Amino acid sequence: MSRSVDVAVVGGGVLGLATARAVLLAHPEASVAVLEKEDRWGAHQSGNNSNVIHSGLYYAPGSSKARFARQGGELMIRYCQEHGVPVRRTGKIVVATSTEQLPRLAALHERGRANGVTAQRLSAREIAELEPHVAGVAALSVAETALTDFGAVCAAMAAELGGLGAELRTGAPVLSLTPDGPRTLLRTPAEDYRARVFVNCAGLHSDVLARRAGARPAVRIMPFRGEYAELLGAARGLVRNPVYPVPDPALPFLGVHVTPMLDGSVHVGPNAVPALARQGYRRRDVDPRLVGELLRDPALRGLARRHWRSGATELARSLIHPLFVRDVRKLVPEVRSADLRRHGSGVRAQAVTRSGELVDDFAISSGAGGIHVLNAPSPAATSSLLIGSRIAAEVLDRLELPDRAAGLRSTEPE
């Protein structure tokens, strides 16, 4: 048995839900199905991250990340406030712990200005006034950063979509996508869907789904595990608001940071180590098929050539706890080994080109019958409402509703 729908969104993370929401808000008469393979919404990247609403400080001016993060963050804060999702604008500081990092801090300051971010330079004395237990020679104080619970955001969006008439299906992995006249047939274990347009928001499996649909993506997904720790007892009081290191500009990762959460816990991390399974949340999670693919893939060899030093550092910090503690102490010297315990992990779907370059910006491509989101790392959750509107505009174009699609585009940042 198959059901005919206008739009099938594959993936029930925050971006898939936001896309379905944008379609229905622009065109309430559309029939939309959201298909999620897990038994809950936001089960992977959306529900296993630092829960930070980013300001747009880090991203190259003119990039999609930069254009979407600033306005998208404000939209996300407003969404949380209007839908009863916990949110707090905390600000954060980005700390240079040595004089060698000062040129990178200055460059980050200029990048933030270009992106419209409110960032104030702090001296060592001003750092001490703001965060007495944080060590640094200089820092940037960023006002726009906020904290939320993206798992709760996903739940709110799913509830809203139910009210808008979407068909919401968990436990519905898409096994195949095949052309069926002007539609695409999406097979799931329980039911099949014939969609006029499908949107691939499958995250860690997005490249696999694209290939199942007959596309030839120019990237492959490399899963990176980010491991978190938690501060215990009195050590939780050592920081008041999020504290970040100066990031390595060659990598799309922000480094190990300290984040007081809305529930009173304080998370430290994540690092970024290659995972040996697409859902490799634990070191022992190994998918032999994926390992074989990676070993044969020239992209992995290219990635290793470019980043073996940083990769070795991340891996050592993952395996040797004192190294992790040492890096935390660079920011917060009073933290001791006994103050930290492991606290879960997330897996990031990082796109890598065939030559082994890490894709730093969002990557969204179109093919026959579908739209594929092939790279949506941070700040995708922050920017999900805007990205969802962009994708929905193309969906509505394909449904031959150009006027409403144009209205959606007008919400995008210039």
TrEMBL record:
Its EC number is 1.1.3.-. Residues 6-392 form the FAD dependent oxidoreductase domain. InterPro entries: FAD-dep_OxRdtase, FAD/NAD-bd_sf. Pfam families: DAO. GO terms for cellular component: cytoplasm. It is an enzyme of class 1 (oxidoreductase). Belongs to the L2HGDH family. This is L-2-hydroxyglutarate oxidase. It comes from Saccharopolyspora montiporae.
